[in-house]
Task: structure prediction
Amino acid sequence: MIKTYNKEQLDYVREGGKILAQALSILKDSVKPGISTMELDKIAEDFIRAQGAEPAFMGYNGYKHTICASVNEEAIHGIPRTDKILKEGDIISVDCGVKWKGFCTDAARTIAVGKISDEAHKLIDATEQSFFQAIKGLKAMSKVGDIGTRIENYIKGNTNFSIIEKFCGHGIGEEVHQEPRIINYVPKVKINLHTDLRKRLPAGCVIAIEPMINVGTKDVKVGDDGWTVVTGDGKLSAHYENTVIVLEGCVEVVTL
Ligand code: MF3
Ligand code: CO
Result:
């Protein structure tokens, strides 16, 4: 079942989203050559706790941190490390979650470290653009599958990049991951996982839309630490995510 929330609950989602947007903005300003991903994690945790909120990822499946920090060929779920030091030309995907008054919000940005290649720029822009294409015209009673269709149409129509298929967006609320599963592409074969695609989004539901886009192959694998997801060919990957409230006639992005 796709859960829906009342006005008061959605206001908590909005407030949490604002804290998360501010945290991401502070992280963006903090990203520079020489900083470690663990330092970024500490900056995010301190800020979120200072607002009276909690890091939403901490404790999730035993996860011990506030952010996921994934550098270059690392696509998602990079674990913050004191010995992972950013350098000029890197790109870093920072994914963060906030829990405020019992409600979770989830958002991610890929950030340039100093001057980056044209290709890296294109990748970051296209990933962000695919999100905004996905929410264009989205509203209550839209089909879940419309989101992946729009993301795929944009990426295929405008780039030679590929869409990661092994991970997806999701409903969000009291938990970080709830129904429905929101894939970012159009499946070529019918399998069980895709039954959510025909479901319609009810007014008052909250979802996290999160395209993950690779320069090269769409294939990814989980690294030796059991968490970090890296591209199959070692080429760059970008991630862009926001928490979105579905309303009658429109959607509201709460983490911008
Ligand atoms: N941000 C991820 C998502 O978008 C969840 C993070 S998994 C965690 O779904 F373990 F790091 F929390
Ligand atoms: Co998410």
